[in-house]
Amino acid sequence: PAPDLIFQCNSRVLMLLGQLERLNREAMLADAEIGRQITAKILHLIQTQGEKSTKHILGYTMTIYLLEPFWKGQWENNSLQCVCVPGGGRRVGVFVSKGGTGILLQLVLSGSKESPPSEELMLQLHSLLAKVGPKDRKFGVKARLNGALNVTVNLLKQNLQNHKLLLPCLQVLRVYSSNSVNAVSLGKNGVLELMFKIIGPYSKKNTSLLKVSLDTLGALLKSKTNARRAVDRAHVPVLLYIYQDWHRNDTRHRHMLIRKGVLGCLKNITNIKLGRKAFIDADGMRILYNTSTECLPVRTLDPLINTSSLIMRKCFPKNRLPLPTIKSVFHHQLPHVPAGGPVAQLYNQPLGVDDVVDESDDNDDVETENDTENEEEDKDHHARNDDIETDINKLRPKETHSRPFEELKIYERFFLELSEDFQSGVTATPAAPKSQRPIIVPTAQALPPKYPTAAPLQEECHLAKGEQPHPEASPLAPAPTPAPVHTLDTINITKDHDGCCDHSQVRPQQPPLLAGGVAAQQGGGAEETLAEEWAEEEEGGEGAVLEVPDTALLLPLHDPDLYVEMVKSTRSVPQYSEVAYPDYFGHVAPTFREHILERVYGVQRTKIFQDIERLIHPNDILDKVVYDLDIQSCPVIDDGESLKFNSQFESGNLRKAIQARKFEYDLVLNSDINSNHYHQWFYFEVSGMRVGAPYRFNIINCEKSNSQFNYGMQVLMYSVQEAISGRPRWVRTGTDICYYKNHFSRSSIAAGGQKGKSYYTMTFSMTFNHKDDVCYFAYHYPYTYSTLKMHLQKLEALRTPQIYMRQDILCETLGGNSCPLLTITAMPESTSNDQICQFRNRPLVFLSSRVHPGETNASWVMKGTLEFLMGSSPLAHSLREAYIFKIVPMLNPDGVVNGNHRCSLSGEDLNRQWQSPSPELHPTIYHTKSLLQYLAAIQRAPLVFCDYHGHSRKKNVFMYGCSLKETVWQTNISATSCELHEDLGYRTLPKILSQMAPAFSMASCSFVVERSKEATARVVVWREIGVQRSYTMESTLCGCDQGKYKGLQIGTRELEEMGAQFCVALLRLKRLTSPLELRNHAHLLDVESDLIETRCKVSSLLEDEPQMIDLLNRNTHTHTHWLAVN
Questions:
Q1: I need a surface site. Which of 97, 466, 514, 601 has the fewest CB within 10 A?
Q2: Are 894 and 905 in contact (CB under 8 A)?
């Protein structure tokens, strides 16, 4: 309408509303007819002029005047029609806020007292309530207290055949049922039975009514009381029959919402244990499995498939893991048991109660195919917000030291550089102790096809049913063959003058053997004849020869002979005597890119359906154990038809392998020693495979609720055949990878007291390219304790007269392994007092790594740092001149050696022990903290402390730091500005890294202190030692989603590069904090140009980041002028 007509219409409506208001005040029954006439005129104006003409003056607010004084008048219908004028959610909200809901419910109650009630009035009232109810949070309570709830139920019972009135009544009932008390009350009043009278088999009639009925029934069944009532009245088979019938007849899929409504009812019933049992008894698994399988080709039916999948997974009978106990298969006796905590609980619990199947009703809805990584991060973000420290006293540094200096003086011997006069030379590194036990390498359980077959080294362990193993049948003992066990003492690979292998071998006393009977040889020359002679001597025995790949040029820090020497002094709880092939011969990073795997649509659903098939067709399942560490005398069970598994080597973790189908295996990981959980790290060997066969591997006892395996991460594989062909490397592999909740129940004891928790399955498929290959699979790139010792010894050999490097033994671990402590800096240019003084007064940087054994990427980053520090580049030389580095490269050697994921031999997470570490149970943490306390006591606290870690659920590399201000900003703490005074220098180093390191993401960094992290290294060093720049640097296990490496999985090359870039960032930090001191050195001009070049290379990757100068201008006030100049 034209503006002038709208104005005239609005004026008339205002005039009529004014008349109604006067009638409202007078409230005289004689004016009822006048009221009816006025409302009729208003309705006519609204209908003829449209909503737009009156929306600014009428709304729902004035309607109150039409309804309130005339509940028993003759003109309610006109008023209701005015209310029924179309309006958006905002106008409904206004109506609710003005009390409109109560008036409508009162009208329902008063209208029900008429005999008979006006059908037209009830129809319009319930239509209005269906619109208004969802907008009123107290709608259900108001209806129950008002009595309208019973009115609607009675109306429903009396009008089951009146579909016109039935529909709005059901719509209102659906809203009523959202209130749990109402739902129980409605169930007692027989509404469940009413719903089952309305719903039924396939019909083309009244489909809208059926849809609303199912929605109402679904809302009622959210109540456990109603769900039990439905089970008792045998409604579960009825629902399954109805679903089957609609599935069979709805061939054109026009009524998907009705089918989904039936599934919604089943979903709610099966939230209780009785419902799940009734579903199984009614053959629900088979019915939903068959109907879902038939729906798979139609993409639009995915909602039905996903809901069916969720119901089936929920109803899959809960089982315990196929283990005698969930405690670790290995045990280490502690010097004393802690007074409290999970370890004490583990030691004190009775036998047989550690793994009880729990089928409580506290089942979380399992994740669906539509779960996204961002949603998972949002959950993590909310959890972190609840975890933020709110006690401001715990966010301030401690004023006094917790230990007297007399106690700390014993640590002076680890800081010789602070008193070194360089008159008598630098202290040499102590030699590692040696062991004489035999070492077998590698653990090949099968032979490459290009070599003649040799007899197995150890006795076959396949036992007939009921047969007892022979006492001598042990994986660590040789079979009764003519030749004795050959140890690696016999290996002697000679080097030429250039330091490379000369492809010849001096004949040892015995040929070195692989565990599968393969002799190690450096292939070629006259010594091939020797190998043939050995083969003839050992006819029918260990005569096969395996070539050693030449990796000396590509891996300058790797030496197989040296590695074996290191293994001999490594102590493990299982007393490993085998060496894994990848650790022995090393890993050369591939030159090709490994992209983050794009997830195939529906892969998780497919894997789940294959799992459900096991329940439906149990006769198809082999359920054959092929590897079992719980049978200590004979873990490998070889029948010649199945894959062979092994994990009995350093850092190995695989407890049990069960062949489920011909090419499918369920794998169970071992708990951390002295623990009953922490299943994530795996490292095992597979052999005896067939080329081209579609193998599927399921790791069935994972614990975390989500994993990067759902977002493109692949497992790592090392092929012996590829290695001897000149490609010794770990590669990302596997297809159809996903991670999902399974039907194995987690004991509440292992789940921190939480009930109803399940384990998760990580599954992947792959085909092997080489017949009878020996392949190794790992969670991430393995880096063993023996590898560290080898690298440290090789690094020490690189030391030049200009490098000060000292290796001390900080302490001995619970398992008897030594924890190395490194000191690296530059030698003083002379022994003059000035140079010695400058040397001693260099700021300290304290680095640590690998407190969590499963985070092997932390060791690769540390390797990059150490190689850079010992390098010969001008940057490395300047960095050594700038700082004294104190480095503990492996805080948890025992956990690494024994294949743990999180804990040490004490069964505890060492990175939660920093507040009060025990010298007996946590020696590495106790003594590392003592070093820092000593430095604080002599006023030499480190400038930077950084603990290297790996992150399993996020991408990129990033840092966690500590900030009082940023923590307070995330909470409701009220604090004055003086209380929050804080130098922003803690942000400088991460910011530098974001501009230098392609894998580093500033956006992922956080400087908030959480309660759950108060006992971590980062927080304790910040609060107790007073180190402002105290960090945890997290490296992804998956890959990057930003920068140069966006879309790529991370490898050892990128991780080592990150370690080197961290060093460069420290040099840049030195320039920013001590500019004048460094500018006195002319050779730093080269360093500066190198830095500029480095920054230019990554500048294009950081367009979304602010310039570093913006941050640094907010840094320490003393450098403001210098920063402006630069």
A1: 466
A2: yes
CA 99 – CA 70 distance, rounded (Å): 16
Candidates 993, 986, 892; CA nearest to 943 is 986
**H helical segments located in 221-341:** 224-232, 235-249, 256-269, 273-281, 284-295, 302-315
Q: What is the pLDDT of residues 263-313, one digit of tens each?
A: 999 999 999 999 999 999 999 999 999 999 999 999 999 999 999 999 999
CA 360 – CA 224 distance, rounded (Å): 13
Q: How far is CA 2 from CA 212, 377, 740, 1021, in A?
A: 42, 53, 62, 74
Q: Which of 397, 400, 419, 395 is nearest to 937 (CA)?
A: 400
How far, in Å, CA of 678 to CA of 672, rounded?
6
Spatial separation of the C-alpha atoms in residues 450 and 296, rounded to whole Å: 45
The number of beta carbons lying within 10 Å of the beta carbon of residue 816 is 14
Half-sphere exposure (Cβ direction) of 1022: Cα atoms closer than 13 Å: 27
Question: d(Cα 191, Cα 157) in Å, to the nearest integer?
Answer: 9
Instruction: Please say whether the beta carbons of 912 and 696 come within 8 A.
Output: no
**Catalytically annotated residue among 1034, 1054, 1056, 1057:** 1034
The answer, as to whether pTM is greater than 0.70, is yes
Instruction: Specify the residue for token string 């630069």.
Output: 1126
From CA 605, how far away is CA 525, in angstroms rounded?
56
pLDDT, tens digit (0-9, with 9 covering 90-100), for 511-534? 333 333 333 333 333 333 333 333
Q: Chain-centre distance of CA 450, in angstroms?
A: 42
10 Å Cβ neighbour count for 190?
12
Cβ 929 vs Cβ 914: under 8 Å: yes
- Per the annotation, the verdict on 1034 as an active-site residue is yes
Supply the DSSP symbol for 430.
Answer: P
| 692 vs 690: CA distance, rounded Å | 6
316 three-state secondary structure: coil
Contact 803, 824 (CB under 8 A): yes
In the structure encoding, which two tokens stand for residue 839, read together? 């040397």
Which of 89, 182, 197, 66 minimizes the C-alpha distance to 136? 89
Q: What is the mean pLDDT of residues 108-136?
A: 85
Q: Which of 289, 293, 296, 215 is nearest to 259 (CA)?
A: 215
CA-to-CA separations, 549 to 725, 726, 780, 783, 844, in angstroms, rounded: 7, 6, 22, 19, 41
Token digits of residue 96: 């609710």
Q: What is the dihedral of CA 251, 252, 254, 258, to 10 degrees?
A: 20
